[in-house]
Amino acid sequence: MKMFLTKVFKFDSAHNLVEYHGKCEALHGHTYRLEVTIQGVPGSEGMILDYGILKSIVKEKVIDRFDHKYLNDTVPQSTTENLVQWIWNEIKEPLSGKNYSLYQLKLNETETNFVVYRGD
After folding, report:
1. Angstrom distances, CA of residue 7 to CA of 10, 14, 32, 34, 43
2. What is the largest CA-CA distance in the chain?
3. Is 68 among the residues known to form the active site?
4. Is 21 noted as a catalytic residue in this protein?
5. Of 19, 68, 81, 111, which is the active-site residue?
6. Domain 3-117 CATH assignment equals 3.30.460.80
7. What is the residue-level pLDDT of the chain in tens, covering all 120 positions?
8. Beta strands in 25-99 (DSSP E)
9. Spatial contact of 16 and 73, defined as CB atoms under 8 Å apart
10. Is 109 a catalytic residue?
11. 28-40 β-sheet, strand order
């Protein structure tokens, strides 16, 4: 019985798209919304993964590095597409266990613009 567990995170960051010529070439900011979805089966304790563990991993690997920061310092061409791939690579291994694995990321740059990523 495979299930999907999702936790939502938010962070505020600034960036500019250096390889793009248009409005987003200038420095600007967003309130990003990140949905992290794990797939798996409940273990003996009845959970796929403790939400507290999920929260601490994403906070350490992503939120603490991106919140109120300049994204280009970490991801030079910080499009939503590049950011979501970078996040995936940072949290895929720590979010892999005997009964669960990272399934999907959804990163909203605005309320209506987002990228969904499921790995390679």
Report:
1. 10, 23, 14, 8, 18
2. 53
3. yes
4. no
5. 68
6. no
7. 799 999 999 999 999 999 999 898 999 999 999 999 999 999 999 999 999 999 999 999 999 999 999 999 999 999 999 999 999 999 999 999 999 999 999 999 999 999 999 987
8. 28-40, 69-70
9. no
10. yes
11. 69-70, 3-15, 28-40, 100-108, 114-117
Q: Is 67 exposed, middle or buried (0-12, 13-18, 19+ CB in 10 A)?
A: middle
Q: Which of the residues 24, 30, 35, 90 is marked catalytic?
A: 24
The one-letter amino acid at 90: E
Amino acid at 77: Q
Tokens of 101: 């694995």
Question: Cβ(40)–Cβ(101) under 8 Å?
Answer: yes
